């Protein structure tokens, strides 16, 4: 690819773009010169130099300058370049102060439903220089990401895997396993408690084997007399579960935190059971070996976000 047609850009300086934006905002060379702390002749020089580089007029002169079509294009370039420089400087400053300029968060369904969105909104409002990536996955996969440093912090079930010597954790809330249905289910309008033993022949959508939620559910099913149950679908994706329960007569399984969140939106309904299936504590986990200011700040925010119900939370139907 040849860059000869943009050779002018090699001579372009940040000062050109900065002066041009100030001139556009000020409206006159005199006012722009004052804002840039230079003489009017110096301001005129920077403008003339920029127009020479571009090869066409960028403003029309009068009592107040007006941008030409070429000037509008250059303004867009100036805003983009100076914005990138500003963001880069903020990130470099964060790195220099020992703060991470990026934060990779991994979460299970329960964290996505309760805590992570509120904490993330608070976090980014106060620390906009930190770019955030969020991934959803079973807790085991998330811990692997934490170990290989693909993730900085994980929100998930605090089972024995969270108590490793190289990990720090903080408990956020207790969660349960919930059964949910969609409008296609004959249980949609069920009000009274349903016995788990009466659901053994239903079309089940379950979490994958090896997950804590699946283990807790399997234990509860065994207690109900089901020695073995073949689910119709196994999935770790809440979007798949949501889509399926509205397409057929399915019984889905998810965390109580996620179930209450979706029920509050009207997208799912919690199937009331004759028993509680405990899921266990949900918490935030991070590496002791790779602490960062960004992780500490996010942990503080998510602890606050889960300390009380979110504003505007709705009690789930059927609960």
UniProtKB/TrEMBL annotation:
Tell me if Protein biosynthesis is a UniProt keyword of this record: no
Specify the domain of life of the species encoding this protein: Bacteria
Which regions form coiled coils?
none
Report domain HTH lysR-type positions.
12-68
The keyword Cytoplasm is assigned to this record: no
A Pfam family name for this chain?
HTH_1
Write one Gene Ontology MF term.
DNA binding
Entry keywords, A to Z: DNA-binding, Transcription, Transcription regulation
Give the record's family classification. Answer: Belongs to the LysR transcriptional regulatory family.
UniProt-recorded name of the protein = DNA-binding transcriptional LysR family regulator
Species source reads Paracidovorax wautersii
